[in-house]
Amino acid sequence: MQDDIQAFTVSENAARRISVLLKEEQEADNKFMRVAVEGGGCSGFQYIFKFDSVKSHDDLVFEKNDVSVVIDEISLELLKGGTLDFTEELIGSYFQVINPNASSGCGCGTSFSI
């Protein structure tokens, strides 16, 4: 289990932005950011970012600055060694996964292949 906890990290920027978004969210009590991987997108797999309040038995929790990010075991296999980050650029701001397992990705950064 300790290996899984170190298998994914949350950047300071991501934790800060999640905290802001949760404060703006109505009924934010017990909510957390869920990161998942699903089949699809232009490169084969796509990242899913959403707020959730229900944890499953196969979820692992990654914490940074009192913010929780939850990833299911299957998604974690594709995200191991990765980092959730939040980027602000002129073209917009967005969450992204810096994923060392991805061999290629699409231009918008929401999908990848292995």
Supply database-style keywords.
114 residues, alpha+beta, Hypothetical Protein Aq_1857, Chain: A, six-stranded mixed β-sheet, three-stranded mixed β-sheet, 3 helices, 9 strands, globular
Folded structure, characterized:
With 114 residues, this protein is an alpha+beta fold. It has helices at residues 2-5, 12-24, 73-79; strands at 8-10, 32-40, 44-52, 59-64, 67-72, 82-89, 92-98, 104-105, 111-113. The chain has one domain: HesB-like domain (Hypothetical Protein Aq_1857, Chain: A). The strands form two sheets. Strands 4-5-2-3-9-8 form a six-stranded mixed β-sheet. The protein has a three-stranded mixed β-sheet with strand order 1-6-7. The longest helix has 13 residues, at 12-24. The two termini are 24 Å apart.
Short description:
It contains 3 helices and 9 strands; from the N terminus they run αβαββββαββββ. Helices cover 21% and strands 46% of the residues.
Poorly predicted spans: none
By CATH, the superfamily comes out as: HesB-like domain
* Average pLDDT level: 82
Strand content: over 45%
Radius of gyration: 14 Å
**Broad CATH class:** Mainly Beta
Overall morphology: globular
Number of helices: 3
Biggest β-sheet: strands ordered side by side in the sheet: 4-5-2-3-9-8
**What is the correct CATH architecture?**
Sandwich
- Counting structural domains, the number is 1
Helix % is 10-25%
Q: State the separation between the terminal residues, measured CA to CA.
A: 24 Å
Order of helical and strand elements: HEHEEEEHEEEE
Strand segment tally: 9
Largest sheet: 6 strands, mixed
Specify the structural class. alpha+beta
Named CATH topology: Hypothetical Protein Aq_1857, Chain: A
